[in-house]
Design a protein that fits this description.
Number of strands: 17
Largest sheet: 8 strands, parallel
Bound molecules: zinc ion
Amino acid sequence: MALTMDPALGEIAGADIEILDGEIVGIGPSLDAPGADVIDGSNTITLPGFVDSHWHIWGTLLRGVVGDGPDHGWFATKGRLGGHFTSDDFATGVRLGMAEGISAGVTTVHDWSHNIMCYEDAEANVAVHRELGTRVHFSYSAPSAHPSMPMEKMREILAKGGVLPDAVMDFGNPRRIAEEWVPSSEDLLTVGVAVRGPARSTPEVYREEWRLAREQGLTISMHCAGTEAEVERIRQVEVLESDGLLGDDMLLAHCLYISPIEREHLAGHSIPISMSPLAELRLGMGAPPINEHIAAGVPVSLSLDTTAISATADVFQAMRVAVGLQSIATKTATALTPRRVLEMTTIDGARALGLEEVVGSLSIGKRADLIMIRTDQLNMAPVRDPAVAVVHSAQPSNVDTVMIDGRILKWKGELTTVDVPTVISEADDSLRRLCERAGFVPG
Ligand SMILES: [Zn+2]
């Protein structure tokens, strides 16, 4: 069974999918492809790979130390350990996080790397994606001030390349990544910047950052309206609208508390929102108003935010939580249907990253990024409606095969470009050394 997520093709039982040089060249029953290598798709559901539109993958290392107490929450831990990351820590964290992501069916990721202290950190980050074979939109960002960060820690971060609210981020490094890594990426890498915006930088600074990003052709991503405290202080979308800066080269994360008029601005400019239900719940940020956004015409996709908060890269769990929250909000069981939430995790995610012509659906002419989910397993059988089964029953262990750009990265349940025990032990070593350098005792 193929869930193509292509409106013209729909769902095709017994479909063959023909792939040539990483491109989908045929979809339909009984295709004739002489000499082709054949993958048996019986007892599986094949669908486009998941697209995560907002993931701080570098933070994966911190999963082991983010606890529930106020002194050991995500922001406090990031503030205490973030400035001690080395380029090697970036590599081991991204390798662990992305290996888990691929295993769970994520084929395209928006890697929102907001702790880069030098060019080598950024290189280490994108090099791991190349090593693993991920399709990635890489958003470059320096560590920035956070209210929970003591001044002493701030100075330390500044000394390592961080930025204060009245300083413009370095745009030379993202330009270098675009120049040195994109041309040889076989179109698997695109580059943007993640900015602090009106809530975390001065008007002169954010306006200049918008100008530089657009001058360099870099997409602009920003956290927005994730807390009530932020919108009591400033309404970023309104500010950017009045500055004339909103545009469809932007992506906003969270937007839990935007106003109806801000929603209209986002819809008018086709600016997508990435919602991270697992993180938004765990941090107590609020329930994502997905249906309100969709009803207003704002594009919505899903994301993990960081597995230091979401705890796992389980996209299926994120979809179920998103569905459940809309059910609670509307007191119905069908407010967000399985097919709609699957669109959010595939084609709408691709659209949010400007990749809708490349991936996000199984369509002729698109690149072959797909996953195969087993149906003959205890938590899946008996399957009748494939979308219901994928959204409500599946888990990462049911993902049998993952293909990115025609290359198989997971085969019969095993990752092909990752030595899992090594990745885990290196991440464990990295975290131990990181905590030692920072004098940090996990709580
Ligand atoms: Zn985030």
